[in-house]
Description:
The protein has helices at residues 23-27, 32-44, 68-74, 137-151, and strands at residues 49-51, 61-66, 79-91, 96-103, 106-116, 118-125, 130-136, 166-167. The chain has a five-stranded antiparallel beta sheet with strand order 1-2-3-6-7. With 171 residues, it is an alpha+beta fold. The radius of gyration is 15 Å and the shape is globular.
Amino acid sequence: xxxxxxxxxxxxxxxxRAADVEIADIKAGKFRALxxxxxxxxxxxxxxxxxGPQVHLPLRVFVFEVQERVAKKRNVPxxxxxxxxxxxxxxxxxxxxxxxxGCLSVPFLGGEVARAKKIRLRAVDHDGDPVDVExxxxxxxxxxxxxxxxxxxxxxxxxxxxxxxxYTIVL
Length: 171
């Protein structure tokens, strides 16, 4: 396994819609090493999610995990490590949660972003099997953030008030 180079805001890969991944290639195991490297990279940068475009790959893939120390710090449930391909989501209901959000591709900055409290995610898992799941709270925030990356968007695009943007060492 190896730590991958994270693309930074300004690199064109972060603003392009990523390509779907062939399910046959997922089932054949062609992405196992990549997923391992993405997970190692996410851990090294202390993130809770990492999408393909963030490691210079214009592919609709992301990994995620909320480790115990992060769960305690943010007072959210722990979430086991996982990966999704070709993910999309739809918002369930009108409830939103405004919370601080940061990004490995926008280092040292964070700001308040309103996200849907509950979503339905449709994707393909690491084995190539379909996934259709409803999630809420912090997990929904992570999934929305990562799917946004595969759509060519970053959290700054969703900030209604840039006055909440600040350096993480100050926030």
